[in-house]
Specification:
Elements: H1 3-22, E1 25-26, E2 31-32, E3 47-48, E4 51-52, E5 62-64, E6 67-71, E7 74-76, E8 79-81, E9 88-92, E10 97-103, E11 109-117, E12 125-130, E13 133-138, E14 148-156, E15 161-167, E16 180-189, E17 219-221, E18 236-239, E19 243-247, E20 258-261, E21 268-275, E22 281-290, E23 296-305, E24 308-317, E25 321-330, E26 335-342, E27 346-347, E28 353-354, E29 357-366
Parallel strand pairs: 1-10
Antiparallel strand pairs: 2-16, 3-4, 5-10, 6-9, 7-8, 9-16, 10-15, 11-14, 11-16, 12-13, 12-15, 17-19, 18-21, 19-20, 20-29, 21-26, 22-25, 22-29, 23-24, 23-26, 27-28
């Protein structure tokens, strides 16, 4: 090898090492990953039309497979592709993926938030992984009217440096078909602890995934069967559909800054398992309302605990508001599952899914008065 060739090879190695170091970020702060909105794009020489050429062509990211760099307003057939944040996004073709290295704290929990839009197939899905955790996020159901939904996925860091991978496992005939990805963010999750004021953890839903400030449709928390660690600490999303995590900056919230909107009818249930004393009576109180997002009509929230249930009707005008409800039950085991679900499917006038809001949940034991002997 000539001296000039050796020098060129050394330059390439140093460049690759610098890129690797730049891709490692501190995962402790909540917000977008470096170039998480893909506004820094490939150079013209690294694009073949919209297809990205080169594994490291997108700054801060490593790509594999057929990846496209899409600008807002890009036309696909008769459909215009919008972008929720900024003006650029990426599209993952068959078996394509994007990845970024993250510097995290070993043992801590983290939630990843990203937005995705379906472009071709009705059965699109995404694989999200941080070794050794992985999950499949189905995209058959679109919840917002914009065509974009934001998803949350959580993991526990088993190493101080991890690699986040978002992968499209699709096998479409058109290799360019696949979901659009934008606005990838991270947030550290701090598992809530019990207090003497509530037997439920994270009962006000204040601890949860990062909500992107420039979006107006919340963050979907997937079913627990799709996620080993819940992005909504202490809560599980049971059944087939997601629940929508919302904030007071964009929605009406009964209490605090966060709440949960039940958007999947009986197909999505929010649950938590709590320690109870057999034979003891408990009261479960909670708020039911609407998010002020034009979701009008009759709503119904069902709450279950032990063998007891209550149905709470709510007549929504779509402008916000709530009421309190109470369920009293007697514990039959040392662990009791508390469950919330929506009886009906609700939709807005544009056809997008919506539903009742649940917030400010309290579970307390009712101490029975001691029986005194009655003297005759």
């Amino acid at each position: 090898m000539s001296m000039m060739s050796r020098y060129a090879a050394l330059v390439l190695l140093l460049f690759a090492a610098a890129r690797g170091a730049a891709a490692i970020t501190d995962g402790a702060a909540a917000g977008l990953l470096p170039n998480g909105n893909f506004e820094k794009g490939p150079s013209r020489s690294q694009l073949n039309g919209t297809q990205v050429i080169g594994r490291y062509a997108i700054p801060e990211w490593e790509i594999t497979g057929f990846v496209e760099y899409i600008e807002s307003g890009h036309k696909q057939g008769d459909m215009l592709l919008p972008v929720p944040e900024g003006v650029h996004a990426v599209r993952l073709g068959n078996e394509a993926s994007i990845k970024q290295k993250l510097k995290v704290t070993k043992g801590m929990y983290y939630s990843i938030t990203f937005c995705a839009a379906r472009t071709c197939a009705q059965e699109e899905r995404l694989n999200v992984s941080v070794t050794p955790d992985s999950g499949v996020l189905p995209m058959q159901t679109m919840y917002s009217s914009s065509g974009w939904d934001c998803y949350a996925w959580a993991f526990q860091a088993l190493f101080p440096q991890v690699e986040l991978v978002i992968h499209n496992p699709g096998v479409e005939e058109d290799p360019a078909c696949g979901p659009l990805i934008d606005s990838v963010a991270i947030k550290t999750l701090y598992p809530p602890r019990l207090t003497n004021k509530n037997l439920l953890k994270n009962a006000d839903f204040e601890e949860g995934p990062y909500i992107l400030p420039n979006t107006t449709w919340g963050v979907l928390v997937p079913p627990n069967i799709e996620d080993d660690h819940s992005p909504l600490p202490s809560w599980m999303v049971e059944s087939l559909k997601a629940v929508n995590y919302i904030d007071s900056a964009h929605f009406k919230v009964p209490q605090g800054k966060r709440a949960v909107e039940l958007v999947g009818g009986k197909e999505s249930a929010l649950a938590q398992v709590v320690r109870t004393v057999v034979g003891r009576v408990y009261t479960l109180s909670f708020s039911v309302g609407d998010a002020g997002n034009a979701c009008a009509g009759t709503m119904m929230v069902e709450a279950f605990a032990a063998r007891s249930t209550v149905k709470v009707p709510y007549d929504s005008k779509g402008t916000g508001g709530f009421k309190r409800a109470v369920l009293r039950f007697t514990a039959e085991a040392e662990r009791t599952r508390v469950v919330f679900l929506s009886t009906y499917y609700n939709t807005r006038t544009d056809g997008s899914l919506c539903g009742p809001v649940v917030d400010d949940v309290t579970l307390l034991s009712v101490r029975k008065p001691s029986r005194r002997l009655r003297l005759l």
